[in-house]
Structures are given as structure tokens and as C-alpha cells.
Amino acid sequence: xxxxxxxxxxxxxxxxxxxxxxxxxxxxxxxxxxxxxxxxxxxxxxxxxxxxxxxxxxxxxxxxxxxxxxxxxxxxxxxxxxxxxxxxxxxxxxxxxxxxxxxxxxxxxxxxxxxxxxxxxxxxxxxxxxxxxxxxxxxxxxxxxxxxxxxxxxxxxxxxxxxxxxxxxxxxxxxxxxxxxxxxxxxxxxxxxxxxxxxxxxxxxxxxxxxxxxxxxxxxxxxxxxxxxxxxxxxxxxxxxxxxxxxxxxxxxxxxxxxxxxxxxxxxxxxxxxxxxxxxxxxx
Amino acid sequence: xxxxxxxxxxxxxxxxxxxxxxxxxxxxxxxxxxxxxxxxxxxxxxxxxxxxxxxxxxxxxxxxxxxxxxxxxxxxxxxxxxxxxxxxxxxxxxxxxxxxxxxxxxxxxxxxxxxxxxxxxxxxxxxxxxxxxxxxxxxxxxxxxxxxxxxxxxxxxxxxxxxxxxxxxxxxxxxxxxxxxxxxxxxxxxxxxxxxxxxxxxxxxxxxxxxxxxxxxxxxxxxxxxxxxxxxxxxxxxxxxxxxxxxxxxxxxxxxxxxxxxxxxxxxxxxxxxxxxxxxxxxxxxxxxxxxxxxxxxxxxxxxx
Amino acid sequence: xxxxxxxxxxxxxxxxxxxxxxxxxxxxxxxxxxxxxxxxxxxxxxxxxxxxxxxxxxxxxxxxxxxxxxxxxxxxxxxxxxxxxxxxxxxxxxxxxxxxxxxxxxxxxxxxxxxxxxxxxxxxxxxxxxxxxxxxxxxxxxxxxxxxxxxxxxxxxxxxxxxxxxxxxxxxxxxxxxxxxxxxxxxxxxxxxxxxxxxxxxxxxxxxxxxxxxxxxxxxxxxxxxxxxxxxxxxxxxxxxxxxxxxxxxxxxxxxxxxxxxxxxxxxxxxxxxxxxxxxxxxxxxxxxxxxxxxxxxxxxxxxxxxxxxxxxxxxxxxxxxxxxxxxxxxxxxxxxxxxxxxxxxxxxxxxxxxxxxxxxxxxxxxxxxxxxxxxxxxxxxxxxxxxxxxxxxxxxxxxxxxxxxxxxxxxxxxxxxxxxxxxxxxxxxxxxxxxxxxxxxxxxxxxxxxxxxxxxxxxxxxxxxxxxxxxxxxxxxxxxxxxxxxxxxxxxxxxxxxxxxxxxxxxxxxxxxxxxxxxxxxxxxxxxxxxxxxxxxxxxxxxxxxxxxxxxxxxxxxxxxxxxxxxxxxxxxxxxxxxxxxxxxxxxxxxxxxxxxxxxxxxxxxxxxxxxxxxxxxxxxxxxxxxxxxxxxx
Lengths: 284, 305, 635
Hints:
Chain A has about 280 residues and is mainly alpha-helical.
């Protein structure tokens, strides 16, 4: 269903692109401001939050430009809901939850943009119910990144479903996720901002990260193959086409819309042909 | 109870989402940027008072408690990793590769202040989550990015039914004879894996039928329009003024008063404060809190804004 | 030119060899109300999708033929442009709603269609008021009831002012009250707006007589097309599962004249002399043990195989139920063999103690309270008992506390107060899995039950969880599938099955050996058509006949009447009525089965179609000339 996508879009696309560049410039400005002013004026926490927000906005707008159809949008929403609901199933087991795995697999099958959206939405959604906070944009980035990492894995693997590759990435991302969240924490609430203090923060969360990674490894090892198959089947329907078989009649040309209006009063009361119904009833 | 949005009759709930967003953002920014304990205290009290005015304290209790724990954790970890500061409280041992593990009063106080700032930021976000209708927000977002906000709305809509399904699934499997447990965390997790797979299957089936329904209603047509929503009221202007007041106070303090130093010795909080900025901050917060309170009481006032 | 024209249309879904639509021809004029009937998989849904352009544009596949809607070629135009012309409502509202609030959902279609904002706002308002949704304008959609959700879908579709409204079993997931409301709404929309309606529905009693045309489809073809009266006559000869209950009982009783509605039926009967009085006066069939006044006694008299120990279950006599069913039964002729299907399990024997000691109580609840964290009192001092060997139907409105009660019963929720005992012990989350060989539970949502990729693995899993594995288990599974005629589904994914197949597979799994003593079912007939309902009902009948105890939560009075000899109605957190099914169900004004309302004027509580058929056949001598000759009993 790719018909008629050229005209009419360019205007909107142009605006979106301009907006994106504007956001990028703003981001750069924010970074500069943050760097220049480091020690006395400690704006790192705010700047980092702004950066995360801007990055998210850019990526969300990219998704908009992707011109995804109803299936793509629906599957992203549903996967995100399943991922967040999956957290409920595993609520009793601290540290183990399927969000990272789902984001990685979604990225693996559907590509970076949809994977990112899925991961980011899982974070947004579960925090809607578990509690939003300054950590939300960071979690969105971290889980969105898991989706992107999944897409890169697929790209490197040449599109073949490799369970071990997915498992490795999911496990690694268990740590990356933790370190990324530590980065936020460290930037905002730790003094001084040195490598040493950052490592200390990572050490503090190590136990949690190990379980997260082990959980991801488990999910990927057991579920990667069936889930990838399931999603691939779904993806196969993204670009669905139909063929028209010739039946002798040449009336297959589009009836050329435009006369859609004014149909009132034109309906002759053709009596409905029921002959075949009776013919078949005789058989019964 | 999970903190989720509930409609209530307060001024904060009645704000346009953009105005509410500005308000929350200014409070969070003040908490994040201003390290001076004096400011931290003012902003923290202000945020809590706003929560109370929005009748959200009870709903937000769980998340605030969690934030308090996190804040204390920050206060506890900071002195461990940070041995700057003059006044050493406890002389710790020297650890190889790490250095001396001294606990200083300054680091402890810094930790406490950082914890309080964290708490304040969470309180501000809590206000946002509890008093701003996520639907209005999504609708606002859909102007910027329709597809992403639609996916988000869909996820929000599907989540409760997916949770119900997950719980039903667990119950049904228990009744079938699967104890869904095992020794250790990972074994327990393993018992749940088939359920997760089934949950995915359900999600994909739903996605397929929702996609069909979306197509049947013309999703993806060109020239999509939007219904008209959102009314700006005088109160939104008021909220915008208050937010800019807070933001101006932050900028003023940063430019004129500078930052605040905990190390090597605690600076005098009052001396480091730009008084007009503090005044502006307090005035903005107090006036808004006053408006929130009076709004409920006086019909005349209420009907005008 | 007709509004919808389909010519020689053949369509195959991608990867399918079998044609979903096979040389189909159809014309629908403006303002018609077309009812589509036919068995599952006959192509009804495909036909509706075709109208909306979803077939083939959305689903793909191979197509031949011609379709035009409002003069526009469906195959050649962008389906997105067709959306405004044909509004589609599908089965499950859950799978159609995309927004978080009612208002936004209604605007969704119009926004896609690119209508100007003032028009959107106006029509949204219109729909909210017109469909009675204005109270819910800003409600969070997941919090709505099923009926409200489906109404929201309808509003969203109607807001686009479609020329054709195509509805695919819109009420299949709803309780009877909401279903009735929705169908009434559709009728009103048809009457007031003149929108053409193409409806596919299995609650035929609500729409059959109203339809201007009824189509009967099978294997992708339209076999019959005509007015409802002719359709009823034709279908009664072809397959009477697809006509409403009233004409069906008349047809089965051999009448030639088939009234379509309760009113018509009553009018028809009112003019006739009746011998009903004789049947309830003195002809107490000597062979009829008038112990159990419920459905079970009828069956006993009919088939003549009394289950030992059952007759003593209920010593109370019902005033209306002392029917001389045995006298009626003489024409029934057909012996129903109801036993020996599952064989006898040694573990079962204890469930049926001798009548003298009274049957064992499998479950009881005394003064059961349950209060949710929000303070909502879902159960308020509920008393309930379930004896071994009994069949109990639990009825009640949505939100009456039925699910909470079930969850307390199984131990999934801990009661706030009161005492609950299941199989002689306190139910708990930990204990529940250990009861798997004694208790079978079919959740309301079959999705929750299935976790395996194929039906066969699903059944093997059940065996494994019951501690049986290896060759023996495989043999038992294969036998079970054969017995329940499910072998052709063995390799299918349970999630891809139709509602009827899913329910049957779930039952087959639950009823694997060792046969559980107690079967708890939560709304087993939701979304099933008449034929599948009968199949489920029969499977349960066999289970009951082999000594099983059934507790079924249902909205379906006919199903309840056919299955259980006792019934309880829940309301306000407690049991408001409990007793023999005939007493409890019989005098309901709103939810009693249609046949009850048909014959209710004669001072007799008839709950089951079989009973109504017998009465119509034998108690109305004046009806002779309106009847056909040969017996019309279903095979």
C-alpha cells in the first residue's frame, strides 16, 4: 500500500526536518552551556535531563516520518503493553523482568525505529503506573537503545535468527541499562563527578544488574526463537499485496472515483436475484 | 495503590496541560539546578504544598515514600564515595585502588541535600503524573508526532487489559496444576516463561485486529485533521506567569549569586543567596498556592479565572 | 444501481487453496437491513471485510470478480477512501479501540477522513448524545464495560456517516442485556438514519424478524437469500441451528407455520385449544421419579437412564415442575445414551455416597466477605454449598461478585471474613495446583488457559501436570481428541481457533483422565453460536452423567437450564436466590429463555427447547392442520 505518498507530504516533511535541526542545535547549545559552566554553576543534572528529552523528541519525530501503517503502529503499541504487563507477571522476582528482552527482539525483527519506540514506550507506560520521575526519559532512552541494539544485531547477522546473538545482546544490555541509569544518578546527585565515583555507583548496583542480565539471558535463551518467529510472521504482513485473477471480464479498471457524491436517487430498485438460492435449496 | 491520574476538582487539575507542564518543569528545574540548601528547602516545601493543593498527597504517598528512601540512599552513598571536605567525622580505612574511606560532614550534608533535591524532583514529577491528564498530554503530543502518540495511546489503552490477561493466565495455570514456582529466582522466572509467550501471542493477535479496525476507519489517509480541544483560561496565564517567575529566580540566582559550594567547607547559605531571586521564588510559589486555595473557596474568583 | 454490487467474486486468503468466497453474487439496495447467517467459517466475515475493502487490500490474497460500493470499485480504489463509505464493527471491542477516551475514539475515524475540526466536534457531540455515551465522554476506555466499549466503536464508525454499516457479530462478547441494547441501537440507527446495515449475528432472536433480508451462507456461497419468513422456512429444512429459537421449536415440533417472534408465537397458540392442562393435571407418568424437578428429571424421564443416587439430591418439590414429562416423553423415542463415555474412574466413587448419608459437600462458603483494597465490598456474607454430583448454575449481573466469588473459591483471593472449604480444606494459592486431578477450571478467557503452541501439546501438558507422562499419556490424549472430534485440530495453535473450537479444546483438556470430580466453568458459552453451545452442553451432559459435579457461571439461561438442576442468582455480593433451576429461572421476566416466554402464558415453566418441542407437538391438538406430516426431529 504505497500509493500516493509523494504529493502533499513534502511540506510537512520539510517542517519536521527543520524542527529536527532546530532541536539538534538546541541540544548542542545546551551541551556547550553545561560544559562551560561546570564547577560553580552545576547545571549538569538539568542539562542532561534536557538532552535526554531532546534526543527522545528527535527520535519520536523520526518515527513520525517513517510513515508507518496501521499494523506497525498497532504492533508497537501492543508489544509495549505486553512488555509492561510482563513486568507484572515477574513482579515477585526482583531484578528479572522482560522489558529489555522485548525491546531487543522488537528491534531485531522490526528494525531500529520500531524497536526504539517499543522500548521507550515500555518505560513510559510502566512508569505511568509505577511512578513517573526524572528517571523516565533516561529509562526511555535506555530501553529504546535496547531496541536499536537489537536492530544492529540483526543487521550484523544478516537477518538470520541467531538466538545466541540476541541472548548476548540482551545480557549485555542488562549491564548497559544499569550503567546508563547510574549515569543519570551520578550526574544529578553525586559529587564530585569523577570516574571513581561513577564506578562506585556502578558497583553499588552491580548485584541488581547481574540479575537483570541473567534474566535477560534466560528470556532470550528460551523465548528468542519462538518470539522472533511470531514477530516475523507478523512482519510478513506489513507489506501485503493482493493479486487480481483475470476472470474474463474487463471491468477491472478502477471506477475512477469523483462521482461518489450525488448517488442519491440513482438507485433503481433492482429486485435482488435469488434464483441461485432456490437452486441450492433443492439440493439440500 | 498505584499513582495514576484521577480527575479531581482542583486548580492544578483544571490547568491546560501545557501550563501544568511549564509549572512542573520550572519546579523540577529549580530543584535540580539550585544546590543551595536554602533553596532546596523552599522548593521542596513548595512542591509538597502544590501536591497538597492538588489533593494528590494521599495518592502519591507510595511514590513519595520510595523517593524518600532513594533520597536517604543518596545521602548514605555520597559520603562513602566522596572524601572531600574538611571536617572528618569518621576516619575510615584506606582501600587499595580507591583511597581513603573517610566520612566527612560536608559529604554527608551534600548527600542529604542531594537526597532532598531528588525527593523534590520526584515530588514535582508526581504532581505531573497525578494532576495532569495523560490523555490531554497525548493529544497535545499528537500535534507534534501523530504516530508515536497514537502508539503510546494504544499502549496505555492496552496495558490494563494485558495485565488482567496476565493475571488470568497465572490463575488458570495454577488451577491446571502448574505451581509456577521452583527453587531460586531464575527457576521461578523459568516457570513463567510459557505464560509470557502466550501473553505475546495475545498482544500480537490484538495488534492484528486493532490494525484492521484502524484501516477500516481510514488510518493513514492523507490530510488528517484534528478535532479542536483544549481551552486556555486566565488561570493558565497565571500558571505561566508563576512558572516564569520560578524560572527567572533560578536564572537570577545562577547569574548573580552563583552556585553553592559544599566543599571544602560548607558555604554560608544565606551569604550565597541572591535575595531578590529568593524573594521572587517564594513570591511565585506562595501566590500560586494562595490562588489554588482561594479558587476553591470563592465562587466569584473561581468563575473569573 | 444498487448500493453494493458483488459479481462472481472468488477470493482466497494468502497461502490458502480453499476459496473463502466462491463465486459469490450479491446486490444490496440502499436502506436494506441484511442479516447474514451461516456456520463458522462459511465466509460471513470475509464478505463483510470485502465490503469495507479490507479484503483484499488489508488481508491480501487472490481475488477474482467485481465489487462496487456506491458506484465505486472497491478493488481499484484506496481502501482508506472506502473507509468513509463503509463502517465496520467487529466482534471484540477490545481489538478495535485505539484511543484512551471515548471522545477521542469517536473522533479518530473522522480525523483520518480529514473532516474539518468544527464538523468533527459537532458529530462527536451528536454521537455522544445519540448513543447515550455523553456521561462517559472523558472516561478511560479500559474502565468501560464490554457493552459501553462496543457502543463506543459503533459511535466512532457511525460518526463517519457511512453508507453501509457492516457488523461482524458485534455482541458475541457481551452479556445478554448489553447485547440487546446494542442490537436495539443498530435497529434504531437503521430506522432513523436509513443507513444500510449488513449484520452478522448469532443472537438471532433480536434481529431476525426485523431484517429485510436474510442470507444463509455456506462454504463461501450464498445458499439462500430472501425475507426472514422464507429464510426461517428454508433454514428449518436445511440447518435449523441458524434460525431463532421460536421458529426452531415450532419447526422441530413439525409445524408448518413458523412464527418468528415470541409475540407471533403466542398469538398463534392463543387461538388454539390446548391440552396443556391434561399434561399437568393427573398424568403423572408412573415411571417418572418426580424427585428432581430440574432439567435432570426431564432427561431421566426422557432417556430413562437414571443415575443412582441422584434422585435424592433435592427433596423439595416444585409447584410448577410436577410435569408429566414421562407422558410427553413417549414420543421422544430417542434414547440418549449418556454414560460410559468417559468410563468409570475408581477415584470417582467416593463422590457419590449412598443417598442415606447424603452426598458429600465438595465446597461450601459460610458468611463469606471480600473487600477490595479500595474498600469496595464485593462479597457480603455469602453462603453457598455445592454437593457432589450436582449441577449448579450461578447467574447474576456483571459486577454482582461472581468472579470474586470464584476466585475466593479457588483460593486465588483470600476472604476478608468467613469460612470457605474446598475438598475438605481451605483453598489457597499454594493448594490450588495440588487439586488439579480433582478440580477442572475453565476460565472465562480461553486465552488464559492456553500456553502451548499446538492443541496436542496443550493436552499433553495437562496430562503432565496431572502426573501422567509417556506413551500412556499420549494415548489418552489421542483418544480424547478422537472422542471429542478434535483430531483435525491437533497441530493447530490454540490461539488461532474459532471460539467454539477453543471452548471444546479447553473442555477436552480439562476432562482428560483422571477425570476431575468438580468442573468449574466461567461463562463457557460466550461468543458461541447455537450449534457450538449445544456441543458444549452435550459434552457437559456426558460429564455429568458419569458422575461429575459442575458449577457453571453463565448469563445464558437456556444453557443453564439445559445443564443444571440447581441454580443460584448472585446480586449485591450475596446469593439472592438458590434452588431448583426451574423455580429460580422460570419466573424471571427479562432473562428467561424465549421458549419460556412463548409458553409462559399457559401456566407452565418451560426452560428447554426439548420441552417446548414436546408441548408444541402434543399439547395443541388444534395445531394439527398447521403441521407437516413427518417428524422433523433433528438427526
